[in-house]
Structures are given as structure tokens and as C-alpha cells.
Amino acid sequence: MTLAVCHSRALNGLHAPQVSVEVHLSNGLPSFTLVGLPDTEVRESRERVRAALLQSGFDFPARRITVSLAPADLPKASGRFDLPLAVALLAAAGQLPTAVLAGYELAGELSLCGELRAVRGALAMVSAARDSGRTFILPRASAIEAALVPGVQVLAADTLAEVCAHLSGACELERVSLSRPTVIDTVYPDLAEVRGQGRAKLALELAAAGGHSLLLQGPPGTGKSMLAARLPGILPSMTADEAIESASVQSLGSQGFDMSRWRVRPYRSPHHTASAVAMVGGGSDPRPGEISLAHRGVLFLDELPEFDRRVLEVLREPLESGEIHISRAARQVCYPARFQLLAAMNPCPCGYLGHPRTACRCTPEQVLRYRAKISGPLLDRFDLMVEVGCLSLAELQALPDGASSAAVRERVIAARERQWQRQGCINAELSAAALSEVCALPQAEQAALNLMLEKLDLSARAYFRVLRVARTLADLSGDACPTRAQLLQAIQFRRGLANFGSS
């Protein structure tokens, strides 16, 4: 046989289109030609495959070798094509049966001694192969991760020789069973350790219960970062579908997916020097950025005005759509980015505006210039804003008086359960049409709400965000409809945003 075809997968964001690795042997001077838009890593596979075959005890054919990666217009990257290329080459040379290749998909990088190395994006590849009906062969490290996807038979291999022995019928590869990791109770800082700050704690509970975005503002040392670090501890674990989505994105990152983080919501806190590409993703082979790595979790931006304004502006569209589209000359990819935004900032450049004991050194112009680094459209996308004030010495020395993270988490889980049973999503993801159904107000409450909103001159987006927050307050209290007091409380969480530009 001089022609053999082996199936594999490329990566284009979270999509993994099928790639046919076609190998043809012909007479002529020995050569190795690789076509089909391979990048440098794929072109270098010629030398890895040659050494791996020889070290594994196979003969490398001294013939004219032509390898085509089809479709030809799809860019191919990384070393995942090493294993299917080596197997197809052996089949074309008659050292492996070709008939069995149609029932398998393979991916794996080869070392020079024939061992298999893990590949990036195993979850995405196996998820895409679910409808193909083929068995997927992967390096063992990648196979354990890929087994999280139901409905696909995944085989684990350590070396090229093991794969060839399985395909020839000499021995069977180990099948990796669908075994979801045990959800590990991650230890988070306790919310009860935060002294005072009752309003900020309520806002944190609201944000967790409804998935709302939250901005904390206050002088240095008032506990903004301390509060933010406790948000993951009151969030519920992810559902199985959310966990698969999050793990698939994590597997595409440079650090891969950590199995010990199964169903643990991601918490990303990039430094304020992060670039726009680091935030949204990109590169010649586009990788997910911080907003995608925080998918179904929390993105915390400390010292918000210190971020470059262009970096902050790229957050606006993903906050609304829940996804990010990255366009490059060679390819366009789309990553999910449904994250919960949590931010903290000082009230002025020196940080002490409104401080009871330390005088502010900033002029009104400096304060306005500092706050102008955050645009109105971005501020409008925050649901909640809280002033985190200074505590007195007596408050600092008092015993903890708030609820623990465990108690708050129970209330958050109960509120989210009400939301899922009522509308199939959390309140922050409600569309305007769905919100009008689940938050239909009596005539008196609606009239009072309209009057208060007209005084604040809020935008249409802010109107719906106020309703979502009021709906979450009602869910925490177990009420069927938001009361007038809850509507007023939701508006109070927006007043700081309405007055943000004034000093």
C-alpha cells in the first residue's frame, strides 16, 4: 500500500475541525514533502517522526514521501499531528494495517525516543469528535483530561510502539473511563474575618447570588481586596455543563487544565500592566485571554483606573455578549467570556478623598482626570457600586459580627436555585423580555420606580440592571416579586455610579 489516511483534529479557538493526514509513497529520490498550511512546529515533525520510528524499531521508508494535511486552507499548528503522521506513514509503508485507521482519531506529540507527550486542547478535540463515532487515541496525560467528555471512547498510550501494537491487534490500549474528579472543597478566606463593612458584604452576597458585576471604591486599607478575595468562597460550584465549558477553555491556555480545579470557579486577577491582548486573547495562533480564562468565574481588576483605558474598553462587548471574537489576518476565532466582573479602586490619585483622618492632597481637576480613566459606558455595565469606608479603632478591635462564608454561601445557593427553577439562568443573564416576565411590578411600585429613575437620569441599560438587582434581592428574601424597599435598595447601589464624575 502506498497511500494511507489517518484522522486528527486542528484547533481554531474552541472549535476543532477534522484534519485528514494523507501520506503517499512513490519511487524516486528519498524526500519528505509536507503540504497543507503547516506552521513551523508541524514542519519540524518530519525530524521527530523519523527519529521516533527508528527508535521504536520500525523502518523509515527510503522513498519519496508526500504528506498532505487536508483541508489545505486550514492552518495547522503544534506537534499534535506527530502521532497521526507516524501512524499513516507506517500504514502507507505496509508496516501497519490500513483498514483499521478509519475508526480512529489520533493526536499526540512524539519525542525522539518514541514517547508521547501531552497536547493542548484535548478537551476541545474530543468534544468535537463526539459525533464522528471514532475512538480517540491520546497521550495518557491528555487522555485523562479528555475522558471528562461523555459519549467518546478515549484510549491512553505512552509510546508510539503501544499505539502501533494496538492497531495491529497485538495488544489493547487502556480505555480511560469517564470518571469525573471528586469536587475538592477549596479553602477560601472566611467572610466573617472582615470587620464591619455590612453594606459591602451585602453587595458581595448580591453579586454572588445574581452574578452581578460589582465596583468597590474606598481609601487604601479599608478592605476592598480583602472582600474581593472572599467572593469565590460564597459562590456555588459549577454545574457539569459549566465545568466542561470552563475546563475546555482552560485546556487551551498555556498552563492547561488542572484536574484538581474541577467544578471550581476560576478566579483571575491580572496585574494592571496587562495589555489588551493579554486581557482578551490573541497572537498569531490566537490563545484565550484573561476574560476567557475567567469564563463561568470571576475577573478581579484591582486598582481599576491604573489599567490602560484601551484595555478597559475591550471589556465592554464581552460583558454584554458573553463571548469575544478575535480576528487576525490568517484566522478568526471566538472564545466564550461569560465572567463576573469585580473591580476595586481608590477615590482619587492619592487615595484619601473623604478619609476622616488623612487629608487628601488632590485637586478637583486631578480627581476628575483620575476618574475619567474609566469611561461612562464601562461604568454603566456595573450593576453595583459600594463605598468601602474607613473603620474606627473600636470597630477594628470588635469581635466578628457578620455571617460566615458558609452561611452566606447557603443563602446564595438557595437564591440561585430559585432563579434556575424560574427562568433557567441567573438574573444577570436575563434578557429584557424575560426580565419583564419574571419581574412584573404592581402599578404602585412601578410608578415609584419610574419617579426615582427619572430623578437619577439613568440609561435604559441601567434601568434593566436595577430591575435585575431588585429581582436578586427578592430571591435572597424568598419574595415572589421585588418590594418597594428592595427597589429602593437596588437604586441606592447605582447612585454612586450616577455621581461618579463629580468630586
Describe the main β-sheet briefly. 5 strands, parallel
Principal-axis shape equals elongated
Q: What is the name of the CATH architecture of the largest domain?
A: 3-Layer(aba) Sandwich
Structural class estimated from helices and strands: alpha/beta
The third-level CATH topology of the largest domain is Rossmann fold
Radius of gyration: 28 Å
Task: Please give the share of residues in helix.
Answer: 25-40%
This entry's quaternary arrangement is single chain
Strand order of the largest sheet: 12-15-18-11-19
- Termini, distance in Å? 80 Å
- The structural domain count equals 2
Which range does the strand content fall in?
15-25%
The overall pLDDT, averaged over residues, is 89
Specify the CATH homologous superfamily of the largest domain. Answer: P-loop containing nucleotide triphosphate hydrolases
Low-confidence stretches: none
Number of strands: 19
How many helix segments? 21
CATH class of the largest domain equals Alpha Beta
